[in-house]
Amino acid sequence: MKAWVCENPVGVEALQFKELPPPPLGPGQIRVQIRAASLNFPDLLIVQNKYQMKPPLPFVPGTEFSGVVTEVGEGVKGFAVDQRVAAFGGLGGFATEVCIPAVLAMPLPDAFSFEDAAAFICTYATSHHALIDRGSLQAGETVLILGAAGGVGTAAIQIAKATGARVIAAVGSEAKAQACKALGADATINYATQNLRDELKALTEGKGPDVVYDPVGGDLAEAAFRSIAWRGRYLVIGFAQGQIPALPLNLALLKGASLVGVFWGEFAKREPGRNAKMLGELAAWYAAGKIKPVLDRVLPLEQLPAAFARMAAREVVGKLVLTNV
């Protein structure tokens, strides 16, 4: 098999594309021939040694992928050779094959393309868990989505619209604003040229958004929290800007607002039944055409460094996908 290997987590430039022996198949695992893998922001952080999980060296990065089952381990039920699957496996996705616990895999209908499937689980599960489960978003409410043109942001726009909410998409360029409008956003704010608080006040007639979806963190967080509506819910998804904000907690008191942590990965481990039900609902929404991953680029696996460079430059709209042919 071929894989991108991280032997020294000092950055993308240290990754090596090399031949490796096939990984051993353990009990409860399936072997997957990978057809497509997508980039998520933690994939960049982990090869820079900046992520909360620090795997033993060497390791193969790549959290999310799709492919075909080629071997089934002892004790595995519900999967068979030649079955199409997608998975959020944590590691191993930037390779031609991988062995993962079967419980991490999601069976794929034939109509689900490998490229879409590789860009589906993490972003849509995160956004559904955030908006519906943790944020209790209701039809008619207004949600502000920060970093709305990214992977989780584009998924959040689609899920919020499917719920019947009004969407304000906040982005860093006019091109990204237009992309969000094409996905169904009702209004956009370009925070590179516009004042976030002033625009939110105008767009909500002074009320503010009922829900703030924040995968960005950094210096936008306080302005967004100061603008939130009475009884608003501020969803902490992640910190793509790199800075963890310090929010004055008196704002929560003054607005009767909730600061809500969202950790889909832990939710999936602790509440597997609810997670499986949610993934089933999302797959049904995909089949019905309510949601569809936005693919920024589809590149060969060999071009992983170029894909990472595009992600680091914050040029991506939706998800970057790598394919094995």
UniProtKB/TrEMBL annotation:
Key words, A-Z: Oxidoreductase
GO MF assignments: oxidoreductase activity
Enzyme class at the top of the EC tree: oxidoreductase
EC number(s) per entry: 1.-.-.-
Alphabetized InterPro entries for the sequence: ADH-like_C, ADH-like_N, ER, GroES-like_sf, NAD(P)-bd_dom_sf, Quin_OxRdtase/zeta-crystal_CS, Zn-ADH-like_protein
Pfam families the UniProt entry points to: ADH_N, ADH_zinc_N
Coiled coil residues, start to end: none
Residue ranges of every copy of the Enoyl reductase (ER) domain listed in the record: 11-322
PANTHER family: QUINONE OXIDOREDUCTASE-LIKE PROTEIN 2, SHORT-CHAIN DEHYDROGENASE/REDUCTASE
Protein name: NADPH:quinone oxidoreductase family protein
